[in-house]
Amino acid sequence: MSINHPTAPFVGAPEKDPNISLIGTLAMLVEAPGDFDLVQQGRIWALAEVFSSWPNVQEAVIGVTNVMLAFEQPPEDIGALSASIIELWHRLPGRDANGKLIEIPVVYGGEYGFDLPAVAARAGLSGREVVRIHSEGEYTVCAVASSPGFGYLHGLDPRIFMPRKSVPSLNMRAGSVTIGGMQTGVAALSSPNGWNAIGWAAVPMFDPRSDQPSLMAPGDRVKFRIDRIEL
Amino acid sequence: MIEILTSHALNTIQDLGRIGARRFGVSTSGAMDPVALAAGNALLGNDSTAASIEVQTFPFRLRFGADIAFALTGVDCNAVLAGCAVPPWWCMRAKAGDILALGFPRHGARAYLTFEGGIDLPRVLGSRSTHIRAGFGGLDGRALREGDIVPISHTRREAAARFDFGAEPPEVAIAGARASEDGVFRVRVLRAGEYDLFSDAMQATFWSTTWKISFQSDRGGYRLAGAKLTLPAPVEMRSHGVVAGVVQVPPAGEPIIQMSDANTAGGYPKIAAVIQADLWRLGQAPPGSLIVFSEVDYREAVAAMTPVNDYIAGLRATADLFRAL
Q1: Domain end among A91, A122, A141
Q2: What is the pLDDT of residue A8?
Q3: How many folded domains does chain B comprise?
Q4: pLDDT at position A150 over 60
Q5: Cβ(A51)–Cβ(A69) under 8 Å?
Q6: In CATH, what number is assigned to the domain containing residue A179?
Q7: Cβ separation of A152 and B239 shorter than 8 Å?
Q8: Contact criterion met (CB below 8 Å) for B270 and B136
Q9: What average pLDDT is seen over chain B?
Q10: ipTM of predicted assembly, 2 dp
Q11: Which residues span the domain enclosing A60?
């Protein structure tokens, strides 16, 4: 149930429009066309920044190549609003991943990295190699979502992709360094979690009493450093 | 202050919700029945942002540590203050030492206790709502328990203000708000993003099924049982923002309606979204309740909020007059 018609030709532009749909009367989802990549994600960041300054927008909530607008009041003219969003999408330059660099020391494996052997087995690698590949990557925070301070990190080496579990681990500890599909992240809360834990980081990811409660913000870059390996 | 004497699991301090922190991954929390909360604050002349105690497990008892005016709204739970019955949707003044006891409700799910001046706990990220999963907000970020002391603000605007009056409950005052005679709630929804991906037969099933709110339902979401909605091919959704009321369909086919404590992000296909004017009614539907979905368009969904807003505004104006009499 899309408001616009993404398949209709956009005169003079070879590029498809974003898909725009409502979630009730107080939220609107704007999804970038095409496959996931950091260029589209950067355009979403730029879009979200502009949206945040629009009247009647409570906040712009960034997802993975999409952004949800939460409204104060139901917008009066959905059609006109969608048209402005589409126009903005085609005109606005994307933002680079030029946020701060966050370095996170990790204790890989051991008590809290209990899925490291499974990740290694699936990859056909040793645990040590998985750790090397994970810690050598440079990651980009696409979005902070799902639970407080949880950053969806892009940039995982495909050799260590690992599907989410169908049955979540019941009480994964806050700080667990995890892999879920093609993404990696650091669990901000102790809670049930379907991602695969390969290590643990002591860096606090979330402080509700701070003006900037989340350590990670969209566009930040993250590097994991080996603190210790427990195999 | 007040002292909690009896509280079983999951009774928490909630206001209208934590607005503006979704972008940090923080769900809004907030009262499941915001109309009952708003009515309580209106009766007392409180700011609409004042927090309440949301009671969803009964019985519940507290003792007043001072003379404090309070309002009891939401579900009718046979409340008694110092031996005298407290009518539902009522405000009155308790004396220091009085015990207020809420019994078991017959219909509905949640009662709201609001206090003149409001609950005096710090706002965290702009709200006093308890975020249980992350452990902040409310009282120490957790559910209330026996022996807890909840501070109440001392700012009394009108020392001589008169209390002891009530409101017509919204399910009586607002046309169509009550469950039908067979006990089935009609819940109005708008189609959502992936509605068109479901086959005609699946769409028809969605509208025609009488869904049961399962017992694996809580403030995070309501799981529905009654039919399975499957897609011709699995759909890979990228993680995106969601709001309370969204009806998502996981691969197993049984829909989930996200509620106040839902995650900020979701990735399941969205078939529909409950309109704002019906979310508070859903907040009063306990597990086991039966619901049917009926479709409205955007204009109808917006218009449906007018009687709700009018109800609260009217109640506030009338209560202001009563207190000044």
Answers
A1: A91
A2: 47
A3: 2
A4: yes
A5: yes
A6: 2.40.100.10
A7: yes
A8: no
A9: 94
A10: 0.94
A11: 19-91
B23 contact residues in A (CB cutoff 8 A):
59-62, 144
pLDDT over 60 at B242, yes or no: yes
Residue A13 lies in a domain: no
Its sign, for the CA torsion B298, B244, B91, B66, is negative
Considering the domain architecture, whether residues A53 and A166 belong to the same structural domain is answered as no
- CB neighbours of B321 closer than 8 A, spacing ≥ 6? none
Is residue B312 in a domain? no
> Does position B182 have pLDDT exceeding 80, yes or no?
no
**In B, what residues contact A, Cβ < 8 A?**
19-26, 124-125, 131, 133-134, 136-137, 190-196, 238-243, 245-246, 263-265, 270, 273-276, 298, 301-302, 305
Q: What is the pLDDT of residues A2-50, one digit of tens each?
A: 776 544 444 555 689 999 999 999 999 999 999 889 999 999 999 999 9
* Phi, psi for residue B42 in degrees, rounded to 5: -65, -45
- Dist. CA A78–CA A145, nearest whole Å: 26
Give the model confidence (pLDDT) of B278-320 as tens digits: 999 999 999 999 999 999 999 999 999 999 999 999 999 999 9
Q: Single out the residue in A91, A122, A155 at which a domain terminates.
A: A91
CB atoms within 10 A of CB A105: 15
* Nearest-Cα residue of chain B relative to residue A36: B238
Alpha-carbon distance B229 to A66, whole Å? 25
pLDDT digits (tens, 9 = 90+) for A102-140: 999 999 999 999 999 999 999 999 999 999 999 999 999
